[in-house]
Amino acid sequence: MRLVLFKLNALGDNVVFLPGVQQLRRLHPDWHLTVVTTPGQAELYGGARGPQEVLTSPKLAFDKAYRRPWVLAEWAWRIRSRHPDACLLAFDQASVPHLVALLSGARVRVGANLDFVRVPGSVTQEVAMPADARPSTWNWSMAAALDRALGGGADWPSRPPRPDLRHLLSKGSRPKAERRRVLVHAGASKRLNQWPRDRFAAVALALSRDFEVVWIEHGPRAGPAPGGTVAAPVSSLSELASWIAGSDLVLCNNSGPMHLANALGCRGVSVTGPSAPGWDPCWEPERWRVLRHPALACSPCERPDRELLGCANLAHPMACLDYWSPERVEVACRESLSLAP
């Protein structure tokens, strides 16, 4: 059996997609799995439970391939030449992946969230958003539906397990510091999820009086490390995972690194703006402080099945993030650290 799974997204989306891929590989080691994802996420799919093949493309280049017919034709040929029996189209995939899957010749095509897909008949089975509205559960349900459509008889647990990320830590985590370590990641792939960098820097400086504070220089917003912190430039997921696994607390936005830290079993504090509650940490949520505005009528305004393009609060734009002062976030970090063993 040959499967092609489309997941052209950023880090966090792929972290919560990975359990379904690993479960399919565990249940059917003789099946050949190909994952199509973005270049920065390929490393995530390594290890013994990863797919046999990973193909990559920048998301925008793939999604806009209809503007360059020769690129679209090349991708259609690449996927069709693998003679897939089935395709899985994650719920947040655009029309071009659906078109490529339709042209692949696969007899089974499982997908979701078709309201914004302009390719009629692209899937043979649609999977509805689950009751908990969690992307992690939705991805897991789609992988289970694909397994059943291909005759798999295994019962899938109702919730996805934490993904196996040991391959990212094959070189080990960073050694523990003399003082407890707080890792700060100020970036996020979406502008609307970004708490101001200068506020992260203020929290980092305040915490550095009592803890070793590591400032991750990774992503478009991280920037140079502020004074009082340890600069940690990273260029790969394994380097980022190594720093996360060696820390006592991770402070970040609701972002890909948050989901990676959660999957690695770390304790953390997440400054959260418009993100839907379904994007809160999936595994052991009690180990995370999700800082969300307690009484804002418009928050959260994001939905898992629809991309958020802007803030609708004209009276106080981004009030959900602006509510969180460095002092409030520092208190949350110190309270979380006091609970750490």
Question: Keywords, please?
Answer:
single chain, 341 residues, alpha/beta, Rossmann fold, 2 domains, 6-stranded parallel sheet, globular
Description:
This protein is an alpha/beta fold. The N and C termini lie far apart (46 Å). The chain has helices at 11-15, 18-27, 59-63, 69-80, 95-103, 135-149, 197-207, 237-245, 256-263, 319-322, 326-339; strands at 2-7, 32-37, 53-56, 86-89, 108-111, 125-126, 181-185, 212-217, 230-233, 249-253, 268-271, 288-291.
How are the elements arranged and paired?
Elements (H helix, E strand, L loop, with lengths): L1 E6 L3 H5 L2 H10 L4 E6 L15 E4 L2 H5 L5 H12 L5 E4 L5 H9 L4 E4 L13 E2 L8 H15 L31 E5 L11 H11 L4 E6 L12 E4 L3 H9 L3 E5 L2 H8 L4 E4 L16 E4 L27 H4 L3 H14 L2
Parallel strand pairs: 1-2, 1-4, 2-3, 4-5, 5-6, 7-8, 7-10, 8-9, 10-11, 11-12
